[in-house]
């Protein structure tokens, strides 16, 4: 028998109580895991480049901007590379299966996002030469089994062609992979010139521009200059860093970080009280046994370690099972809603933070009863007066 | 090696209750030779349990000296007392005080977790201790599956498994019927005679005291003659 076995035996002496505490802890950590994954996916901070600016219509990002703007902005000092794109509103093959599809300026897009995605030379060549070509992210290509050369009839729920058709036939020029850990690859893009020529309305307008700077320190200055350039025009602009733009985009769904903090905080405070109180009760029930162990020669510090070990073991079992459940749940959700929540995943950061929370929960719920057990007088524990 | 195992010199014990100072012992002197089997009797409140607590290092005197094998244990701190107890003392309680979630062998093994022994050495020692108390066949039984007498025998095995010199017994047969009590007392007598354990036993039962080599009567914090106690 080891100290661990003794701790385990103590933990399992009231199986129903232990099971209920494990279940409560499991649920709290599952909630934490799922919400944190959503928060990470929505914030997209890791994939956002700090020296990239995004320019949208000041009214909101669904309003168009003139296609003449990129050339004017390119003249501003500090702008290194610039590209532009338009939301396509794609679905394939059924309307319920909506996809993230953009029309992009094929001459510049790959250069602007060179830090985030990678394509091989053949793909780049195909994209430049074939007007109907599209480049697909690895995740999306894998999902649909698309390969280079495939013809994909991509539907739009926003645009139609001059012929009235809502389908654009796209040729897969190649597949891109991510360069950054948190970069999503569950989207595709095709050529803006093809899109603009064929669409029935909105010609010569674009959705947004993205530009890289010569230095990230110029971000504020360049953003201000862009917005001043188009101030008081019919198409005023709003320029932000990509990170700020992503945050603003997510903010339309609500303050996800605050929601996560509040829900997880409430769950943890509840768990802290439930497990802490139960641990204290469990140790009180064992007062006499602790007195016996001390009379056998177990020093107070070892008793403290055992009680603390029990609360840590409980938190570890419940917490790890909860994080495991969250991983499974996120996997399932990714299948169901991955198109619209790109980057939804249980990342290493969430796991590390979860494990830190497990340790904190174990220590916080165990420290008071453990200290009380350590300091317990043998005489009063055994009722020997 | 001196013949004296335990020596109490001018021991005082008192505590404060409210504004009142309650004295339990004043200048108590006592010597217990190695290999002795002492029964301590006396009325409730006479200080028997307090004396046993001090002998076992789970209570400390207000003044005076308590020596074990020439070492002043009254000067030990908590950590030193824990180590000393694990090396030299075995406790046997009235209500056995076994761990309900551990089987007999695991209960007996508890004190050995404090020793630098391998798992196989611990297993051997546990088997030997259970053999001494004739419970080898009950090693896997839990306390709830054993009678009171069997539980007390497991408690005795736990007390002797680390081979301490001193066994402190607090009413070891107080919860048992006469026949079983006699078996337990005979076992203690055997441990004293055959293994040379020094035993101090607190009891109310004159029949139990007869198993000891000598009986000390305690009254109002002092050792008295039997006649004096009767008076």
From TrEMBL, chain A:
Q: Which UniProt keywords apply?
A: Cell membrane, Membrane, Transmembrane, Transmembrane helix
InterPro entries registered for this protein in UniProt: ABC-4/HrtB_transporter, ABC3_permease_C, MacB_PCD
Where is the protein situated, by its record's location annotation? Answer: Cell membrane
Please give the GO cellular component terms listed in this UniProt entry.
Answer: plasma membrane
Membrane topology per the entry is: Multi-pass membrane protein
An example Pfam family from this entry, by short name, is FtsX
Domain ABC3 transporter permease C-terminal, which positions?
Answer: 264-378
Coiled-coil spans are: none
* Protein name in the entry: Membrane protein
Q: Please tell me the species this chain comes from.
A: Roseiterribacter gracilis
UniProtKB/TrEMBL annotation, chain B:
Q: Which domain of life is it from?
A: Bacteria
Specify whether Lipid biosynthesis is a keyword of the entry.
no
Query: What GO terms fall under cellular component here?
Result: membrane protein complex; plasma membrane
**InterPro entries named in the record:** AAA+_ATPase, ABC_transporter-like_ATP-bd, ABC_transporter-like_CS, ABC_transpr_LolD-like, MacB-like_ATP-bd, P-loop_NTPase
Q: What keywords sit in the KW lines?
A: ATP-binding, Cell inner membrane, Cell membrane, Membrane, Nucleotide-binding, Transport
Keyword Repeat recorded: no
Q: Which Pfam families match?
A: ABC_tran (PF00005)
In terms of PROSITE patterns, this protein maps to: ABC_TRANSPORTER_1 (PS00211), ABC_TRANSPORTER_2 (PS50893)
Gene Ontology terms for molecular function: ATP binding; ATP hydrolysis activity; transmembrane transporter activity
Q: Which SUPFAM superfamilies match?
A: P-loop containing nucleoside triphosphate hydrolases
List, for all copies, the residue spans of the domain called ABC transporter.
6-229
List the PANTHER family. Answer: ABC TRANSPORTER ATP-BINDING PROTEIN, IMPORT ATP-BINDING PROTEIN
Q: Which family does it belong to?
A: Belongs to the ABC transporter superfamily. Macrolide exporter (TC 3.A.1.122) family.
Q: What is this protein called?
A: ABC transporter ATP-binding protein
> Which organism is this entry from?
Roseiterribacter gracilis
Query: Gene encoding this chain?
Result: tptC
